[in-house]
Amino acid sequence: MINIVGRPTSAARAVARRVVYASIALAVLTQGAAAKSPEIMPVSQIRPGQTGYGLTVFYGYQVERFKVKVIDILYNFLPKQDLILMRIAHPRLVKAKVVGGMSGSPIFIDGKLVGALAYGWRFSAEPIAGITPIANMLDVLKRPLRKPGAIAAERWRRQQSSRALALLRADSKRRRDGWWRAALPFRGRQPHPSQDLIPATLPLSVAGFAPQALGELRQLFGPLGFEPVQGGGAGGALNAPRHFEPGGAIGIQMVRGDVSMSGTGTVTWVRDNQVLGFGHSAFNAGQIELPVVTSRINHTLASLGRSFKLSTPGEIIGALVQDRQAAIHADTSRRSPMIPMVLTLKSKRFNRTYRTQIARHELLTGSLTSVVVTSALSEAFADVDRATFSMNTAISLRGLAPIRVSEQHFSARGIRQAPAFVSRGLRALQAALGNPYRELQVDRIDIGIDVNYGEEVVLVEKVVASRQLVRPGEQVMLTVHYRSYGGSPFTQRYPLTIPESLADAVLRVHVGGGSSTTPIQAPPTDLKQYLRHIQTHFPGRSLVISLQKPAKSILYDGAVLDDLPDSVIDTLNRGSGTQIKKIFMTVDQHVHATQRVISGAAELRLHVKRKDS
Prior knowledge:
Elements: H1 10-35, E1 51-57, E2 63-78, E3 81-89, H2 93-96, E4 99-100, E5 106-109, E6 112-120, E7 128-133, H3 134-140, H4 154-169, H5 173-176, E8 198-199, E9 202-207, H6 213-221, E10 226-230, E11 249-257, E12 260-271, E13 274-277, E14 286-301, E15 307-323, E16 328-331, E17 338-346, E18 351-359, H7 365-380, E19 387-397, E20 403-411, H8 418-422, H9 424-433, E21 442-452, E22 458-465, E23 469-470, E24 475-484, E25 490-497, E26 505-513, H10 527-535, E27 542-556, E28 559-561, H11 566-573, E29 578-593, E30 598-599, E31 601-608
Parallel strand pairs: 4-15, 9-10, 17-21, 22-30, 23-31
Antiparallel strand pairs: 1-2, 1-5, 2-3, 3-7, 5-6, 6-7, 6-8, 9-12, 11-12, 11-14, 11-18, 12-13, 13-16, 14-15, 15-16, 17-18, 19-20, 19-21, 22-24, 24-25, 26-27, 26-31, 27-28, 27-29
Helix pairs in contact: 4-9, 6-7, 7-9, 9-10
């Protein structure tokens, strides 16, 4: 008998010891069972007609079972990878079929892990899914991780640098359109909407974004297999678990804060800190570092096109480290830092501030920043009206002076999408991330946009010279004809001295606003010059007079080579893929400050005599 009052007897102490030892042993056994990976069933043991079950979350955090039955195996469906066809069954799947967000749901036969639900048909009338074998997914764990500085290929850096600088030089909106789209590779060719077996769509849960931004997000992430859907996220999921479990939801978070963006799938396999999921790639990007979160499933929505899960991301508890054909690989012992961004919008009667965190990645940061800005403007300044706006961008770089760009622009149809096309600050961010010299750490992004619906732009209509025939060193007077909306036309005269070096030539004189004119700059040779290059621009409240002379150029191997000697052109022209292209090269520029933003441009030609004529 145990004496419960007073000092315990020796017998009571012995019983207590046995209870404690049993509890410890049970805890150890339970912990060992939880940590032990499930037994694997290889494809060679799978036969048509076998039955089993899968795990996924249809609502909240509760992992549920659904039934599966093997139909057949598609051998070598992908390079070195088979695919198991299965029929799936659950009351929620009768109408929903294969659900976007189920990617990664672990599949078991006889208690052994077979693989992950990963593929389906759009518009399918049957709940048929393709299963990625677990052996292919486990192979992803064997891939060694490179050092962070070696993640980006040097060739890609050179291409991005050249592309970014070219965009900074672009003078027309048409050439700038779509610059912000991510350079991540597609998973492959665009599938037939109903006939092709494709990766199960990954719902891209977006919260705090204006509805108009969904179109841009579809252009940006649709080819990668993400389907943007409006869900929760800005406030974060309540009581989100702090660990991953097979069948539970896993999200890749790209934007966090007042607005949120997270792609959601399912966990397949967990051992210690290592997590596998999806059963297919997210971006097809190889080694990559992005935050991963647990997610709450708000609802599983059945749709005739493609059913999907609505979700809300929880806390960041790890980092995505591999994004491969057969699976994503996350590590909960790692963290992928995000970049704080503060966006301030204001006008005479309105002020709003957005505080967000953007995923830090060379291929995504610039595009995500642009989408966040245009979405905020769509909500704050939806007015389809003539407006000018000033935009100040500050990009803080670790160990270097910040990049600062101050610009002024005009839009005749509102500004809600204008920055995506004209902002030099946003393009400077992309250019800095893709620089060819070394990896830069962006610590913070601050963007301020001041909108003025009362200020009118001044339009350049034409330019007239006091004479067409001039000599080197002479001065000619240019008369620029302006017009403002609702105002009377007016003119302004500007003196122009012809440089001595431009004798015996036909000059093109280009007159335009500073925001649409590119400064003359020599190609950068080091990082310091490169960063100075991407920050150099003319103010929008200025008129720039550019002198341009004819120059022979060729289009060779996708690049324009300017002002080459005839001997070089003749040599290169013998090769294939070379096109002669006559262009004008800017040789001199004169900047005149103005009170209002200048829009439009005009041109004329001057004939310069030889010095001795």
